[in-house]
Amino acid sequence: MAEPLFLNSQMHEKIWGGTQLRDVFGYEIPSDKTGEYWAISAHPNGVSRVANGRFQGLGLDRLYREQKDLFGNPDSPVFPLLTKILDANDWLSVQVHPDDRYALEHEGELGKTECWYVLEAEEGAEIIYGHEAQSKEELAQMIEAGDWEHLLTRVPVKAGDFFYVPSGTMHAIGKGILILETQQSSDTTYRVYDFDRKDDQGNLRELHLQKSIDVLNIGKTAHSTPAKLVVENLASTLLVSNEFFTVYKWQILGRESFARVAPYLLCSVVGGQGLLEVEGQVYKLKKGDHFILPYDVAHWAFEGELEMIVSHPHS
Ligand code: ZN
Fold first, then answer.
1. Which of 36, 149, 254, 305 ranks highest by number of CB atoms within 10 Å?
2. Confidence check: pLDDT of 254 > 90
């Protein structure tokens, strides 16, 4: 019987975390410094488990390895994507991620291209998105001198904004921002600057300046231009499509039937409530639910008032 795979996933505490994952989504959180919910993950640092049906309790990593047909017999040996919700109660470190080539060589895992859908943002909230250096030499000099004021590009954000963050992009999520991130399944971050913050033990977090300079891109960040399509009871916005993933925002108002658009889909309900119907079975959906529609779910319907971020990989 074809069925969706609802997931239970892990919280991660961070020095910059807060309580929004509880306050906005109703999740149980371990402390008032909870930064990340790894909502759809097969990464060894935080594996999601199936919450329903015949695979209940199984880790997504194992399911992906052992039930390849559920994922359309993909080429990728590891589940390639990771969906997170991040609560930035304070600035995250200014950072950069390597591409696949550099990451495989230096870290033994995938690189990280990511993208952000802004769920909520405080008045005046900002991110760092790109930098002003015109060459590697200038970049290295400005990092060496700690001239963050002139180096880092700040961009104001509001709820509903979307940012594409390819590997090699200087970036930081700012204070007061709640985002849903879709990324390659990787946990490699090179920290460029951490605002000279200390953790509970009074230690500075490690920086990775040489690796950062190695992988940082020079030149402006490639923007993605979301494209919106409205059919019947669905407004579908294509947020980005690249060699790693395609990400949509789907807004459902009423009932809409779907046929498979990719071997499998990662779905996150970020607003509203409603129903998912698969082979006559009805599943309730509410804000904060995350599920995979596997390959054998060839047709389904959504009903209600739902806002979802939906993605699929390209491997
Ligand atoms: Zn990042």
1. 36
2. yes
